[in-house]
Design brief:
- 18% of the residues lie in helices and 37% in strands.
- By secondary structure, the protein is α+β, with helices and mostly antiparallel strands.
- A hairpin with a 2-residue loop joins β7 and β8.
- The protein is globular.
- It starts with a helix and ends with a helix.
- Belongs to the D-lyxose ketol-isomerase family.
- Its EC number is 5.3.1.15.
């Protein structure tokens, strides 16, 4: 993806987020130079990989297959493993109309996916085999706003604004916006986007970036190169 396109997506996403009454934390708007100057103060943000995240899954077709994310807070895997401390994470996502987030699951993370506003969020679901692998013959069980719902393999469930689903490790899922763009909330256990996204197809989690202009704000995938 071109950096200029990423900058535009950031601006559009910020406008949409604000239109639904959400405001990102102050450090979200730091320039790369400000982030470098305050890297010591922002150590917890950087180590947790909080911040801007825009991906085309390495396919170069963002409008067809991609996702905007902003990680607001993220806990520590060590806390989750010992069963105490900061065991949670929170994100805002934007799924554009007919923009696919491809079929995947998680090994560790359980998550609530919440339609925070906009159009309809559609989630396609499959279950796992005994080893946790994708199984096109398996359904499963999820909880929609706390109400149990059994799903058939490949079933597509629609969520209006205010509605949500709880997905557990082994619930394979893909999603997109239907009828327009959707602002999504994600509340989960500790999030590790580098190792805990298991895709059905061999695709990348992060975009490859063509630096045609300077970044407005850093992506989480920029931290290593810019802030080390």
């Amino acid at each position: 993806m071109k950096r200029s396109r990423i900058n535009d997506i950031m601006a559009e996403a910020d406008d949409m987020i604000r239109s639904y009454g959400f405001t990102l934390p102050p450090w979200a708007y730091w320039t790369p130079e400000e982030f470098k100057a305050r890297a010591g103060d922002a150590k917890a943000v950087i180590e947790a990989r909080n911040g801007w995240d825009i991906t085309d899954y390495g396919a170069g077709r963002y409008d067809e297959m991609g996702l905007f994310l902003f990680t607001l807070r993220n806990g520590r895997l060590a806390d989750l493993q010992r069963g105490g401390g900061m065991c949670y994470a929170e994100k805002l996502l934007i799924s554009k109309q007919d923009q696919l987030s491809p079929m995947h699951t998680h090994v560790i993370k359980a998550e609530d996916i919440i339609n925070r506003g906009g159009a309809t969020l559609v989630i396609e679901l499959f279950g796992s085999d005994a080893d946790g692998n994708f199984d096109e013959t398996k359904g499963g069980t999820v909880f929609c706003d706390g109400i149990r719902r059994d799903y058939a393999p490949g079933e597509k469930i629609s969520f209006a604004p205010g509605e949500s689903v709880t997905l557990m490790p082994g619930d394979w899922h893909a999603f997109w916006g239907e009828g327009g763009d959707v602002l999504i909330g994600e509340v989960s256990t500790v999030n590790d986007d580098e190792t805990d996204n298991i895709f059905r197809e061999p695709i990348g989690r992060f975009a490859e970036i063509e630096e045609d202009v300077a970044p407005t704000h850093l992506l989480v995938s920029d931290y290593k190169a810019w802030l080390s």
